[in-house]
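<goal> How does this chain fold?
<sample>
Here is the protein in question

***
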Amino acid sequence: MTDGEIPVICSGKGCRAPARWRLVWNNPRIHTPDREKVWTACDEHREPLAHHLAVRSFLRRVEALD
């Protein structure tokens, strides 16, 4: 992160930690197939957030933030 950039924060409820992961997902009932939504996650919340999306068959992939 360079000066002036806003840090990416984890999407976990109440979490204010810097995000290190991008969880890419899509809800096929309401989104077109090409639409991708993103949640961000810190190391602690990566697995619980990914699991939440995966059990609903929404999770497409998990990527490291650059």
In short: The CA atoms of residues 23 and 62 lie 5 Å apart.
